[in-house]
Amino acid sequence: MKIFIDSAQLDEIEKAFSYGIIDGVTTNPSLLKKAVDKLEESGNKITIKEYLNKILIAAKETPVSLEVTELKQDKMIEQAKKLYKIFNPVANNVNIKIPVNPSFPDEKGRDFEGIQAVKTISKAGIPVNCTLIFTPEQALLAAKAGAKYVSPFAGRIDDFIRSNNKISFKKTDYFPAEGWEKNNEILEDNGIVSGIDLIAQIVDVFEIYNFNTQVIAASIRNSRQVRESALAGAHIATLPYDVIMQLLVHYKTQEGMKKFTDDIVPEYEKLTRVK
Fold first, then answer.
1. What's the confidence (pLDDT) of residue 111?
2. Dist. CA 241–CA 141, nearest whole Å
3. Nearest alpha carbon to residue 100 among 64, 63, 159, 145
């Protein structure tokens, strides 16, 4: 499974890539706003264009997803082409994020504008990451429209199930992949029992119908969800920096290192010492 960093903080991106295990970057308007606010607070005069150029270069030719902010089909298509034209020449690694359904709650008649935009943009040769996926059928339509990636939001589905059932939680709390049992019933959202279950169902659909679209496990909250995403068959997991930093931590590993160090034979240490 590939690992992307889900961040627009340049320092986090550069640090993560220095570890040699990062395969791409995902951003969104919320992450960019957080990064820009941080820049302004520090008195940095860099423009957003210059800042994005730095991110694209820091990604070392791996995919970087930039998201549209327009909501209507024609505007999303126009904006996607503009983003690609401006930024892809920097490092030839831009993917465009398009929402699977750009309509608001209770809004009617625009449900398919995202899918139509995905189809047009993909046919133009621009790689699309179809985002805000919460059902396997949304992912199916995105794949049929030609999306290179789909991004199911695992953590947000878990939050939705807990909130709907009046279960208090922190976002970092683990949610069982097999679902949450309450009153002897497994809680679910239209047949989805967890974010990991959503990912697994999408992977199954894509394998049955031989889609080339890759599944990006998104909205990942902890290291156990990373493991479960890999077991569910996700092609990619996009992770916040703090989750990446959890992946190598286990008490027994560190305890073992201390014991190995304490047990070093002086003669062996002297023989192999690096000057």
1. 98
2. 31
3. 145
Q: What confidence score (pLDDT) does residue 67 get?
A: 97
Distances (CA, A) of 192 to 177, 189, 266: 10, 5, 58
Q: What is the mean pLDDT of residues 249-265?
A: 91
The CATH code of domain 2-250 reads: 3.20.20.70
Report the alpha-carbon distance of residue 101 to residue 104 in Å, rounded: 9
97 among known catalytic residues? yes
Q: Are 55 and 27 in contact (CB under 8 A)?
A: yes
d(CA 138, CA 89): 31
Residue 204 pLDDT greater than 90, yes or no: yes
How large is the average pLDDT for residues 55-68?
98
Average of pLDDT values for 199-221?
Answer: 99
Question: Model pTM?
Answer: 0.95
Radius of gyration of the chain (CA): 21
CB 12, CB 38: distance < 8 Å: no
Active-site choice (2, 97, 166, 258)? 97
Closest of 121, 149, 156 to residue 23, by C-alpha? 149
